[in-house]
Design brief:
Elements: H1 4-30, H2 37-60, H3 68-94, H4 99-106, H5 108-115, H6 123-128, H7 138-149, E1 158-162, E2 172-176, E3 188-190, H8 199-202, H9 207-213, E4 216-220, H10 236-249, E5 260-265, H11 273-285, E6 290-295, H12 307-315
Parallel strand pairs: 3-4, 5-6
Antiparallel strand pairs: 1-2, 2-4
């Protein structure tokens, strides 16, 4: 059996390229623009070898039984990451359907879900699950670790799910900051996924920023393939009940009379920017207090780097 030092060395040899690869995937998701798909795939291409070699070494090496869970998680994350890189490269090279690019990256949520339980044990993983502005905050990392490991009978914290398996509709996923102290009120973000999406996946688009700022994230799943924006409203009452359910267990610092924060990308090929400009003009004419952000390099993608601005705006 390897020594504890050898075990940690093997972990670090995989973690460094693995976390670097995941960070690059965050970047690719943000700047995903179908005409640039081949260039984005080229940027990711070196990561396959960077991850594959230490992953193979980890698979071959004997490990002590007391770290078997950690090993299996790392192996699963590494394998899924390689599969994602291969799927994106194939879609960029061969597919004429831009949705294949999004499908290839959709599995990124599962990779993060598999990796997150190691955040309490592995410092680099914990720091990766913070937005870059907070990764050097040693005190925050320490509080998050202590909160994740405490066993004091307090309400559950971390990533939770309510009837929200990926083959189910109408449930929700919830992130409760590990630093939460029972009785303390927190802001609540209700994050609604896009078309054909799922709350269990979309939760990860908000977790890093919320984890750094003591913010609850409720990520519901629509009853249909997307939200009932037209026709019969089958989601409104369900969403209200979800918020009430969360607020009954975790005190929510409810915001009132907030202005509207509207973001749209100039490169959006599905919903042209003119639709957002029209919404801006109509809302402004109606007297709404509006923050409008038109982002020049944003395509049909979620601007995860906008989250800190939104949370700062919520805190005003």
């Amino acid at each position: 059996m390897p020594t504890p030092a050898a075990v940690m060395d093997a972990i670090e040899r995989l973690l460094l390229p693995l976390l670097d690869t995941l960070e690059r995937i965050v970047w690719v998701q943000r700047y995903l623009y179908p005409p640039a798909a081949e260039q984005l795939a080229e940027m990711l291409a070196p990561q396959t070898e960077a991850v594959a070699a230490p992953l193979n070494a980890l698979e071959q090496a004997p490990w002590p039984d007391d770290v078997a869970f950690m090993r299996e998680r790392l192996l699963a994350v590494g394998r899924q990451t390689l599969e994602m890189l291969a799927a994106f490269a194939t879609a960029a090279r061969e597919s004429k359907d831009p949705f294949d690019l999004y499908r290839a990256l959709r599995r990124f949520a599962r990779v993060q879900e598999a990796l997150y339980p190691l955040a309490a044990a592995l410092d680099p993983v914990s720091r990766w699950f913070l937005d870059p502005a907070h990764r050097d905050d040693d005190a925050l990392v320490g509080r998050l670790r202590a909160g994740a490991l405490r066993e004091d009978g307090a309400a559950r914290v971390g990533v939770l799910h309510a009837d929200n398996e990926r083959d189910a509709r109408g449930g929700f996923s919830l992130y409760v900051p590990e630093t939460w102290e029972p009785g303390a009120a927190m802001p609540l973000v209700v994050a609604l996924h896009g078309g054909h999406g799922h709350g269990r996946d979309f939760l990860w688009s908000w977790l890093r920023e919320a984890r750094a700022r003591d913010v609850l994230v409720l990520a519901p799943t629509a009853r249909g393939r997307t939200w009932s924006l037209m026709g019969d409203d089958v989601d409104g009452l369900s969403l209200l009940r979800m918020v009430e359910s969360v607020a009954a267990r975790y005190p929510v610092d409810r915001a009132r009379d907030l202005p509207i924060y509207l973001v749209h990308g100039e490169l959006d090929w599905m919903f042209p920017v003119e639709t957002a400009q029209l919404a801006r003009d109509v809302l402004t004419a109606a007297g709404a207090r509006l923050v409008y952000r038109q982002i020049a390099d944003l395509s049909h993608a979620y601007p995860r780097d906008e989250n800190p601005r939104i949370l700062d705006w919520l805190a005003i």
